[in-house]
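Most newcomers find our protein records easier to grasp once they have seen one. Read left to right, the backbone structure tokens trace the chain's path through space. Once this layout is familiar, the rest of the handout is easier to follow. The record below serves as our worked example for the rest of this section:


***
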Amino acid sequence: MRQTLSEWEARIAEMQKSRGNEQKALKQLETQYKEQLTERNSLLATLWQRLGGIVGSKWVDKVNAQGGGGDVAPSTNFAGFSRNILQCVKVLEDVMVNFKLKCKGVERDLWNDYKYRWHTENCLTAGTSMPSWRIGQSA
């Protein structure tokens, strides 16, 4: 019986040591998780500030007012924060699409103006008259 009791005591000591090691590993993982979460939240807050600077403070204030007032931080309300980020990205996408369309329109207008001026110059240097449909337009 003595041998059985000492075996059980040894086994209990071994299990307690193992439990202590597991608790230490768990604390390290928890600390690592908290550090990563803090780093993520900091990065997301910086992203929001930068995107807000691009789209403008009026837009950010409007979105914050719609979200229940106050700034929606990633650490307190991640769902609201991610919704705001996605809205901001959509605004930036719209700006980019509109910018490309405006550039194409300006390019088309400049090309038409160039063709008109080139034709006008050729008509004047060749001594021929301009077509009657272009006379009323200003250069």
